[in-house]
């Protein structure tokens, strides 16, 4: 094991390069046993040769000791529990794992999106994750703010399975305010990283984290994403790996919907409910999920409220987007005082919700 970890400590030896080396020498130990001459023949550069000569073996022993603690694991590419999904896509030479190891080989769907989503986007991520987890899927995401966090929490809300893929060592949490969430996932699900304990936050590690998310999953769902978004990188990796990409559409006026709409134009599957995911993944899931786990949408009871003519008129003017009172006045020609009092009644009934910039419909309830 120590030689596997040592190989990852040589700069520039990532999953692809590492596997090419292993195809020629069979096992990482052979590289260190045969020495610099063999390393040169394998194409290692002078800086890499120097790094190889100065491996910090004491640090490597600490990493191995970390993995000996309860619930912690260090998986090498030849380990029997290493997920086959990764071997067919993006396969780090070493994985550091904390939690329920069996989840690595469970049927997973990735959920990614904006770090600063709309309230509707956050709720959509939470509800999709809850429904998918309730039907036996493992929700895999990156522990980031916004859609990632909402997705993890959605799975946990129904006692479902979730995996957090981290761009740091597992003894560090980014963002820091997700520390409690990370520990809850480690206790009830799984956290995983290709980086050893002590690895700090660095910007360039997040794209690699995104590759790992896409590689673990049968498909990737993008909930909200701007045109320039790390979520689109995850989707692109999913396509490269031959996995499905799903996108949830939004308002044409919402800049965080534009990335999803672009993905749909490029061939991503438009989804409106969790069943859409199961239908698309059915051939694979038939082997992985038992019949009694097949999709069963959670039922969210809606308030029962007989809408008056004025309430119905105001709701028709709103649609399902956040709408300002000024725009409702313009569309209905009702006095602002009447609109405000009506919206207050609808809010108390749980039918609309106040948001920055106006109100949004969140429930049905017309009877």
User: Quick one: overall form?
Assistant: elongated
Strand order of the largest sheet: 1-2-6-5-4-3-7-8-9
β-strand number: 11
Distance between the termini: 65 Å
What structural class do the secondary elements suggest?
A: alpha/beta
Radius of gyration: 24 Å
| Overall tally of domains | 3
Beta-strand fraction estimate: 5-15%
CATH topology of the largest domain: Rossmann fold
Order of helices and strands: HHHHHHEHEEHEHEHEHEHEHEHHHHEE
Under the CATH scheme, the architecture of the largest domain is: 3-Layer(aba) Sandwich
Oligomer: single chain
- The CATH class assignment of the largest domain is Alpha Beta
Taking the sheet with the most strands, its summary is: 9 strands, mixed
Instruction: Summarize model confidence as the mean pLDDT.
Output: 90
Describe this structure in words.
- There is one protein chain.
- 46% of the residues lie in helices and 13% in strands.
- The protein has 367 residues and is an alpha/beta fold.
- The protein folds into three domains: 1-58, no CATH class; 101-293, 3-Layer(aba) Sandwich (Rossmann fold); 309-361, Orthogonal Bundle (Arc Repressor Mutant, subunit A).
- β5 (162-165), α10 (179-188) and β6 form a beta-alpha-beta unit.
- The N and C termini lie far apart (65 Å).
